Prior knowledge:
By secondary structure, this protein is an alpha/beta fold. It has nine helices and 13 strands.
Amino acid sequence: xxxxxxxxxxxxxxxxxxxxxxxxxxxxxxxxxxxxxxxxxxxxxxxxxxxxxxxxxxxxxxxxxxxxxxxxxxxxxxxxxxxxxxxxxxxxxxxxxxxxxxxxxxxxxxxxxxxxxxxxxxxxxxxxxxxxxxxxxxxxxxxxxxxxxxxxxxxxxxxxxxxxxxxxxxxxxxxxxxxxxxxxxxxxxxxxxxxxxxxxxxxxxxxxxxxxxxxxxxxxxxxxxxxxxxxxxxxxxxxxxxxxxxxxxxxxxxxxxxxxxxxxxxxxxxxxxxxxxxxxxxxxxxxxxxxxxxxxxxxxxxxxxxxxxxxxxxxxxxxxxxxxxxxxxxxxxxxxxxxxxxxxxxxxxxxxxxxxxxxxxxxxxxx
Length: 367
């Protein structure tokens, strides 16, 4: 467990301290005891297991460039995208140890829909998630490491406190906490002695601060968890999305004690761009269970539900109030959240590959 301390009672209203104590008492165990690989083994993993910068056949490049990112089909995934690498997806779970399995369920769901497992796994220790109590600076530094290795910028999704942490990472990348961030190696779990990477698309050195991720999402981020000591610095930043992401989706739901700032439909739950980021706010059905929203592996059991998810198209309107318009005989819990997130992941999977291919062709033309 990570030890956290509260400020003196005189500086914080007693009610807030009481709420913080309750939530902290319920949520202080969802952590990892990380043990990194030695440097030699880390290099072996890096060279042999991680995908690295892809060398794609010309025919496959043309097929990828022909894809419509806004309408990626199951056939596109099965016949084209699975033949190419995918951006690392960094999943950040909430505070309770029990929610780790819920986020692992979502990882299983993504693999069942066609996303490569290697791009969902922390290669250093085989875990599938980050803890919301781990350093946001470290997660930011790891995201730069993955980009340098693969040429594909990572995506990031956070649940509950993990959603707060995902937004904190964006503020780290925007330079709102420090002007420099070290590169962190996810194989050794240590910072490297540098704060810059070699941009794989330009070949030039660039700082970690300023890196822009393609897609980040949070679900159930807010409510009582905002009063935890490790999240207090986010109280005036949580709903402000900086330019360190291209597209952000914030999911919330009514009557969410742990995840909603207002228990009803309130604009205080809505994220807003501080600059040019595209921000969507999506309201999930009230009956969704805050702590179990990422639990989605069960959706793979039904071909009909998989087809519905693959055919789902996310609305560009904001806010959006989602309601399921079809009845499935199987368990369809959390299908709306899963479908919306899967739509965005497919979209940015294609966009990242297209971005890489075009950059390489431009370099070849210049040479």
